[in-house]
Specification:
This protein has 2 helices and no strands. It has 55 residues and is mostly helical.
Length: 55
C-alpha cells in the first residue's frame, strides 16, 4: 500500500485533495472495467459477429 500511495503522491493528481483523487481513480477504474468487459464480450461472441469495412 505504501508503494501505491507514493505513486499517487508523485503523480499529477498528488496535489489534489482526497475527494478529487477518489473521483479520478473511480473514473479510471470504471473505464478499465468497461474495456475489460467489452474485451470479454468480444472474445466470447467474436465468432458470431460479422464485421465489414467500407461502404
Amino acid at each position: 500500500m505504501d508503494v501505491i500511495n507514493q505513486i499517487i503522491q508523485q503523480s499529477a493528481i498528488g496535489a489534489f485533495s482526497n475527494a478529487v483523487r477518489k473521483i479520478v481513480l473511480t473514473v479510471f477504474l470504471a473505464i478499465v472495467l468497461t474495456l475489460l468487459s467489452m474485451l470479454t464480450a468480444l472474445l466470447l461472441n467474436g465468432q458470431q459477429i460479422h464485421i465489414s469495412f467500407g461502404y
